[in-house]
Amino acid sequence: MKKRSELKIRLTSGLIALMKGLSWLPLPWLRALGTALGELLWWVARSRRHIVLTNLRHCMPELDEARRRRLARAHLHCFGRSVLDRAWLWHAPPAVLAQRLRWVGPTEALQAPGPMILLAPHFAGLDAGGTAVARDVRGPVSFIFSRQSNPAIDQWVQQGRERFGNVRPCYRHEGMRQILAGLRRGEPLHLSPDMDLGAQDSVFVPFFGVPAATAPSLSRMARVGHARVVPVVTRMTDAGYEVQVHPAWADFPSEDPVADTLRMNQAIEGWIRQMPEQYHWVHRRFKSRPPGAPSIY
Prior knowledge:
Layout: H1 2-22, H2 27-44, H3 46-59, H4 65-91, H5 94-100, E1 101-104, E2 116-119, H6 126-136, E3 141-145, H7 151-161, E4 167-171, H8 177-184, E5 189-191, E6 203-207, E7 210-214, H9 217-224, E8 228-237, E9 240-245, H10 257-274
Parallel strand pairs: 1-9, 2-5, 2-8, 3-4, 3-5
Antiparallel strand pairs: 6-7, 8-9
Helix pairs in contact: 1-4, 2-4, 3-4, 4-7, 9-10
């Protein structure tokens, strides 16, 4: 047991050291390695490949099998690139990030006074967009994180995400009280509510026409915190990432949190159509099913 623990510590230390070393590579080289990592996952991570293909089969039934497999493979390539991009996001000098992270859209929406929720869906650039927000948006900015099972990895991830000192970390297991308190103080909240977190406290609303357990947290937090919602969608590019700011949503929230949650899913669907290979298809988006419905995985 002790030897296994020591081996785990050495492997973790080696992984972190490797990522620090990769941060110095030119971006095209690192992206090539990331693509190779994604190709490896395509062949060896059969369970994840199955999840990706199943998600695409239900969300994009108009694709034939060959096109679906090409899209799934391209997604895993993007996934691999995004994993290795954390090397420079978390370890490269700030000047490197200034060259590779680019804001586009009506960025003045980020500077308006009052409570604000940044809706940031789970695209490959989620961590890159989060880094740009932590660096450039007036803060502190609240982020909702999940603990990593490996304490050393958890510490490394936390240090990487907090490198600019403008992040107020909130953890799911701690509840919503501190998040709402931050909103009421006028602190921006970076929120990614487009994952299946279980049927409890979720509502089933369509996502690409499939009933998907979705937390209505965006609507509820916007209402309780009297916050405007500003979507921030990050796209991976050859030069790094573009952080696209969209105008603040009008007439949101409404009196109906279920309708608000459907509106959110429909907006995310539209962004996915623009870059389908970059959405987080490796997640079991439909793991929770309506009563009596069979598992799709």
